[in-house]
Design a protein that fits this description.
four-stranded antiparallel sheet, 612 residues, 29 strands, Jelly Rolls, Glycosyltransferase
């Protein structure tokens, strides 16, 4: 690693440098390929579920980190691999997993944007990009790659082997022409070049798919505007804030067309917008509209803009954690969650209900940076203390050093706070750096009394699991999905994560949940239970009955046992957990087993873990 300059806080500077080096050693191949998730779903159907995939997002993170650290050798190595293997103008063929044949990429896709996903053995032998959505670009990564190239031009110039600026401008031109669209007179960034072809699943209205965490006001206002005056990037700043504001109060629907209304200034991961600028449901039909794996990143980017440009009124308003009556800032809600729960959970419905009742590295890191930028230093210190408790001297956080998403977002958040945003061109005005102390100097948050123990422990989350959200866990046997049904051919399995287990729930001996729907076929009442422990693969729990199958019991509202489910009314399902080993598990997984049957319009939840 070369050219790494000393940062501001000695302790944090060492952690930032050590974690940067550790991550690159573990997660950047010698050829420059940035690694990401393990292909557990076997996207390429080659039987290898241990290979590491590469996302364009992972590329953008490592290019950004390399230029921020002044590491030109790593930057160039990653860029050269990426342009050769993922930039669509250089992709000559894509692999069709249905026909098991390579085919040419559509000429209209031969542009400067980047395929979303690369697999090292697409056909079981050679690496490449798959058909379907795998070769579609993700506009967040495209923008971040272009920004990293522009920063590289500022830092190292473009007269060498790589013309960073020319590469960036070519990408920006295709982003503008293919990934932005004028909607109701305002130019807005779409999720990709295909997101202008979505539709409302309930009304059929034509829409455009939007992910607000992809918006980059800090790029549009100065970086892109200055580098690329041929396009009016500055015109995208105000519409970005307007769409975020609209999405926070969106009235959307779950799979059953039940209304969900945003009320705590949290944007959902995905929304769509029609030609008149009205918010609609995405045709993917999420089981709940929530801020989970994507939209939390919005806090980071607007916090960064708030520090870089203190005159940005919208960013200032978004980062106001004191105004409980704000119609834009998520700060009061997130602050309240931290005070009440001692943490900020990893996922919330847009109406404020907890969706994922666990902590994640990525959300802890981003919420920490957001609290700091908002002036809520006590909250930032509390979350920093949590992350420090998860830090390993080798240079990573948490139990999994290969958690690319979590490791990157903690790193960027700490770098931002340690450098005051000054490494993100244009340079920020002088601001007060964060004091990296585990315990805050301010008065501690009010003590929250623990609730009295009860005989019943509930999951606390009511949600619907649509068919398409169940995951394939059946050793390659064919499973097909439609918008409202799931078909099990042969003796297939469907898997869904039921609950994130805490210590109390692990002591439960009965799982109880509501379920309704209709089915056809021979047999589907058998379930298997599996568990996942931190840092380990999914494994079967100690099995009931010796064959791994659990015969589920159904009871009606009168407590009488009934033979199956109904499309009209919920029945209560029960699984005896007393013979299952839940020790140390953080996730309980319910796998449905069926023989040549179809389930339709299935709704499931809430889940109750009961101690008898």
């Amino acid at each position: 690693m070369s050219g790494v300059k000393s940062l501001k806080d000695p302790v944090m500077s060492e952690i930032i440098q050590k974690s940067y080096k550790h991550y690159n050693e573990k997660m950047v191949g010698k050829d420059g390929r940035p690694l990401a998730d393990t292909d557990k779903s076997d996207f390429d159907k080659d039987g290898d579920i241990k290979e590491k995939v590469t996302y364009s997002e992972a590329v953008s993170y490592r290019l950004g980190a390399a230029v921020l650290m002044g590491d030109k050798n790593t930057f160039d190595r990653i860029w050269l691999w990426t342009t050769a293997n993922m930039q669509r103008k250089n992709i000559s063929r894509i692999y069709n997993t249905t026909s098991k044949q390579w085919q040419p990429l559509d000429p209209s896709k031969k542009d400067n944007l980047f395929a979303w996903q690369f697999l090292p053995t697409a056909d079981g032998k050679s690496g490449g990009v798959l058909t379907c959505y795998h070769f579609d670009p993700a506009s967040d990564a495209d923008q971040d790659i272009a920004a990293a190239l522009l920063w590289a031009d500022k830092k190292w110039g473009s007269s060498g082997k790589i013309n960073y600026k020319a590469e960036a401008l070519a990408i920006l031109n295709d982003i503008w022409n293919k990934e932005t669209k004028v909607i109701n007179g305002k130019r807005i960034l779409l999720g990709s070049d295909t997101q202008m072809y979505t539709k409302d699943p309930f009304t059929g209205v034509a829409t455009n798919g939007i992910n607000v965490s992809y918006f980059r006001p800090m790029y549009y206002e100065k970086l892109f505007a200055k580098a690329d005056p041929d396009h009016n990037w500055g015109s995208m700043v105000a519409p970005a804030y307007e769409v975020i504001r609209k999405s926070e109060t969106a009235v959307v629907h779950d799979e059953s067309n039940e209304t969900i209304t945003g009320s705590v200034n949290l944007a959902p991961d995905w929304i769509t917008m029609d030609a008149e600028g009205k918010i609609h449901d995405h045709d993917w039909v999420q089981n709940d509209y929530f801020q989970g794996g994507d939209a939390f990143r919005t806090h980071f980017w607007i916090a960064l803009q708030h520090k870089l440009n203190p005159s940005d009124g919208a960013a200032n308003s978004y980062c106001d954690h004191k105004n409980a009556n704000s119609d834009f800032s998520p700060g009061p809600f997130l602050k309240d969650q931290l005070i009440k729960n001692g943490t900020v959970f990893s996922g919330y419905n847009i109406d404020g209900r907890v969706h994922w009742s666990d902590e994640s590295l990525q959300t802890l890191g981003v919420y920490m940076a957001y609290f700091w930028a908002s002036g809520y230093e006590e909250g930032a210190s509390k979350l920093y203390g949590k992350l420090q408790g998860m830090y390993h001297e080798e240079g990573y956080w948490g139990q999994d050093p290969q958690n690319y998403y979590g490791q990157n977002w903690v790193w960027f958040s700490l770098f931002f706070m340690n450098e005051e945003g000054g490494k993100y061109p244009p340079a920020a005005a002088s601001v007060k750096p964060f004091k990296f102390e585990v315990e805050p100097k301010a008065k501690p948050a009010p003590k929250v009394e623990k609730p009295k123990e009860t005989s019943k422990i509930e999951a606390g989350i009511v949600y619907t699991v649509p068919a398409a959200s169940w995951l394939n866990f059946n050793n390659g046997e064919k499973i097909t999905y439609t918008s409202n049904s799931m078909v099990l051919n042969g003796s297939g399995n469907m898997m869904g994560i039921i609950h994130t287990l805490n210590k109390d729930v692990r002591g439960a001996n009965l799982l109880q949940f509501k379920i309704k729907g209709s089915h056809t076929g021979v047999e589907w009442r058998r379930f298997k239970v599996a568990v996942k422990r931190p840092g380990q693969e999914i494994v079967m729990a100690e099995e009931q009955g010796g064959n791994g199958n659990t015969l589920i019991k159904f009871k009606n509202s009168n407590g009488e046992e009934v033979n199956g489910i109904s499309p009209d009314d919920f029945v209560t399902a029960e699984i005896d957990l007393k013979n299952f080993d839940l020790s140390g598990a953080n996730e309980l997984i319910l796998m449905l087993v069926g023989n040549d049957c179809t389930l339709k319009n299935v709704e499931i939840g809430p889940f109750k873990f009961i101690k008898k």
